[in-house]
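Schema walk-through. Below, the input block comes first and the output block second. Nothing else is stored per chain. Lengths vary across the set, and this one has 242 residues.
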Amino acid sequence: MVPLLFAHHRFEIVAPAALFWPKKNALLVADLHLEKASFYARQGQMLPPYDSRETLAELADLVSDTAATTIFCLGDNYHDGEGEARLETEAAKRLTAMTTALEWVWITGNHDRDVAGLWGGKVVDEWTGEGLALRHQASANSLLPEISGHYHPKVRIAVRGRHVSRRCFVKGRQHLILPAFGALTGGMAAQDPAIEACVGGPAEAIIGLKDKPVRFPLPFGEMATDIIDEGQMALPLATTGP
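--- output ---
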């Protein structure tokens, strides 16, 4: 687990796109986009129809690894308004088993405003507690420090001389934006003006590398493509720390 401090709370990065909140014994994930493949199949673009199974299997593994008793899903849980009812049989069985065993909170997003908890769980527009707000989309004028999703932030880095895109968390003084957890989700550059407008400055992109968070000040521009070599842990422009 990789420590991440935000708003006087300690979290742990437990996967490229998931946080564990020890105080609540909870996992936080955003943008599952379940049934994205079946949505595109309806449009004539055929994709392997196993994205929901893969996403839920990864989430189940994290529950096992962390012994979490609560799940907060921060919106865009399904890729479209009909995705909840369309959830394929095996994925629906797995999801029902998890929502029965755990306290499960669905926070609605722009893709799934009508999510109803068909497979279990509690549905809310946002959740507040412990001095924090959990919602789908960041609000520049939030009265509370907030954790959100929506933007699917990523950074482009160099790993052993090869440029790759990595999911990242974006952290500002009042905002923490989670990357997308779903198996088929894309991403937006962490320094995109849309993210900057919500988070303001100063801010940083964070990825979990081994046992430390690696931080990139935002905006970092094109230089960010040449800062990391995971093999030798060379980080001349990034910083590490709790």
